[in-house]
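Re: weekly structure request thread

Next one in the queue (188 aa):
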Amino acid sequence: MFWTLPTLMTWTRIVAIPLIVGVFYLPLAEPVRNLIATVMFIIFAATDWLDGFLARKLNQTSAFGAFLDPVADKFLVCASLLVLVHLNRCDVFVALIIIGREIAISALREWMATIGAGKSVAVHMIGKLKTTVQMVAIPFLLYDGLLFGRIDTGTWGLWLIWASAVLTVWSMVYYLQKAVPEIRARAR
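Done, posted below.
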């Protein structure tokens, strides 16, 4: 199921990365670049929900799609965070927390799957909340201006990205606690 519509939509998130990064190298006014990057991020991030919905609706779920979907999400978030650090809109410490957690939990899930305990570190609501807060914070920080003439997206984005960093640590602790019994059992 490599070329199904849901899988192609997942691939678009990976293809989007150089496009979003490239916008900031265009000879355009900063507010225009910000707007283009924000709209692109929102559209591509929305494919995360849409590809899963379509995969279930069209009965086109696959092991490859299940693998690629979280990888695409992580690439999109990590690349966007690096752009935001480069633009001085996100603290490098926050980016390191979020990116480091993604690497650590991905490795943990892979290891747990190889020992047959993958369900113990399955996606939990705290992880979904973390992702939701990130997916709101990132476009706010990309836009970095007044929305509707009233909402300072830079300030709100900064608060939200720090909140997502806290949720990131919380979710990592949660997943590690779930894995500890298996880790201890395997260490004996």
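The beta strands are 146-147, 151-152. The mean pLDDT is 88.
Next request, please.
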